[in-house]
Every structure is written in C-alpha cells, then in structure tokens.
Amino acid sequence: MGTNLVNYLKIRMNQWNAAVTNWSGTCYFTPLIGAFLADSYLGKYWTIIYFSIIYVVGMALVTLTAFVPGLTPVCTAGICHPNRFQTAMSLVALYLIALGTGGIKPCVSSFGADQFDDNDEREKKHKASFFNWYYLSINVGALIASSVLVWIQMNVGWSWGFGIPAIAMAIAVTFFLFGTKLYRLQKPGGSPLTRIVQVLVASLKKSKVVVPADESLLYETAADAESSIQGSRKILHTDKFSGNRR
Q1: How far apart are CA 60 and CA 72, in angstroms?
Q2: Cβ neighbours for 110, distance < 8 A, ≥ 6 positions apart
Q3: Model confidence at 246: pLDDT above 50
Q4: Does the reported pTM lie above 0.85?
C-alpha cells in the first residue's frame, strides 16, 4: 500500500511527504497495540479477524475515493483540487489501513507458528518450512506491489491499483476463515503489565529470602503443570542474576 503512496497523495490529494511519513509511522506503532490485545485479551486468531476486517474496509474506502464521483477530486491540466471532505475521506481510509496493519503484522507469523508442536520432530521441521514459505511470499508480494501495481496505478488508474489489492485481501481473509476449525488456538494470558508489577512487588518483598537448593521449590505450580497463567510457560531458573551465586 505504501509503495506508491507518495505519488498518490502528492498528485491526487496535494499532500506532501510528511503525510506519508506520519502514515508510515502509524503503521509501525499500531502493531504494539495489536500485539498487546492479542496476547492479553483477544488471542491471535480473533485479533487477526477483527483487524483484517478493518484493513479490508480501509482498502475498499481508499478504492472508492479513487473513482466514485464526489469522493474523487476534480483534476484539470494534471492538477487536482481536492476539497476538505475528499481529503478527509482519503485520510480516514489510509488510517483504517494503518490500524488494520496493527493487528495483522504482529500476529500472522506467530499464529502460524502456533500450529506446530515443538515437541513433535516432524512438526518442528514443518515449522521451519512454514517460515521459509511465509517470508518468500512476503518478498514476492512486495516485488509485485513495487512493480506491477505501481505500473497499473500510474498507467491504468488508481482505482485499479487500489482495487486489486483490496480484492486480494478480501479473498485472503475469506480463505483464512475457511480454516477456522483446523486451527490450534492459544489462550490469551491476561495483561502483561499486571504481571510486570507483580514481579516488581514480589522482588522487593522477597529480596532477603534465601534461595532454596532444590530448584523445583521455585516453581509456583506442580511439576506437571505448564504455568498458573493461561497461555504462558514456565521460565527455567537461573542464578546468573542472583547476588548469592553458587
């Protein structure tokens, strides 16, 4: 989306490079929100679903601003004259895309990794293969976006240049939904901020407690339990940060 955004905002919306910079910065900030919601409350699956819908709505809206009369600025002699409403609609569409990116970017690859069991050697190998194909598809998509789509936008029309990726994204979300019954879903573990505060308080309260020689006594759960926090795992004990190293 951002590959040819400079030309679109400059030629069609009379916006300068700062608008692209602000939008790109938002795209890098929103994944922090998406990751927090996925890990704490929604889970990766529902985060991907909700934010993908927002993304598709943004793509559809930016496509509409490229060809629907009233949303498309009037251009004369190669110079476009957008009014405030048209500029606002374009920016709303772009920032919906930025918001949708926030839930997709941090969750898709990790959600894919959740589908493989690290304790199964066969699935562990498939997990490595998954990441190879995943990043290959990202680079192929980026190549197509920066070449074919840019050519379409500049030579065929902005409506086609935005419409094609909008349709492709809608199809991708549809296929993702088809596999719902097959996915392995990890439960969200609650707010990490709460656990951080708990660790700080516990460390202050127990700063003078003698560390037991038996490491199994350091765990808060039985040996066969994964963790008392849903969606989390035990952290192996280490004395590297202790003042009483053995």
Answers
A1: 14
A2: 44
A3: no
A4: no
- Report the pLDDT value the prediction gives residue 205, as an integer from 0 to 100: 85
Closest CA to 184 of 43, 49, 31: 43
Average pLDDT over residues 205-225: 69
- Sequence letter at residue 15: Q
Number of Cα atoms under 13 Å in the Cβ half of residue 137: 9
Look at residue 227 and tell me whether its pLDDT is greater than 50: yes
Measure the CA–CA gap between 222 and 216, rounded to whole angstroms: 9
Q: What is the pLDDT of residues 83-97, one digit of tens each?
A: 889 888 989 999 999
| Token pair belonging to 27 | 């795209």
Question: Which tokens sit at 13?
Answer: 């919306």
**Token pair in block for residue 240:** 């590297």
Q: How many Cβ atoms from other residues are within 10 Å of residue 212's Cβ?
A: 9
Locus of tokens 């934010």: 51
- Token representation of residue 186: 């990890």
